[in-house]
Amino acid sequence: MSATRTLDGIALPAPGVWEIDPGHADVAFIGRHFMLTKVRGRFTGVSGTIAIADDLSESTLDVSIDMASVSSGDQARDDHLRSPDFFDVENHPTATFRSTGVTRTGGTGTIRGDLTIKGLTKPFTLQVEYLGHVRDPWGGDRAIFSAHGTLNREDWELTWNMILDNGGLLVSKEIRLEIDVEAVHKP
Predict the structure, then answer these.
(1) Model confidence at 20: pLDDT above 90
(2) Are strands 60-66 and 108-117 parallel, antiparallel or unpaired?
(3) CATH of 4-186, one of 2.60.120.10, 2.40.128.110, 3.30.70.1350, 2.40.50.840
């Protein structure tokens, strides 16, 4: 069975279950400090499955993120992000994203879903691009995807902040997510 198929002249992953490879999954976030400097971080504990349906609009995505795996390059900031001020990982160790709808235009698309952070579930949309297929050295078939979306962190009650002398905020409310994953076909 082939790991890809062609729809409307575009090569896409074949129907079936594709498991996200945690060692090749990057869920990154970008916020602003002092409303100017970009601060980047990522979660290293990511797992999940992509179920590609014959009709792509019926495909599903189910992802779990270990919130304690947050890494921003600064231990004090990471500890603060794990605290009740932000992710409260002691009480909410996992965030999840479960798709509720998929639309496709060529090799790109939109995935609508429910994002749960800190026990709160809100709708969230990702713009996704299928980058291609490779066969790894061990005979596994991998589909590579890239996605991005922007959220207001306060929608998930991630409200800790400080007001600056100029009236601005120490930490931006708007957070951009950038996701790159390899998914292995499970025949």
Answers:
(1) yes
(2) unpaired
(3) 2.40.128.110
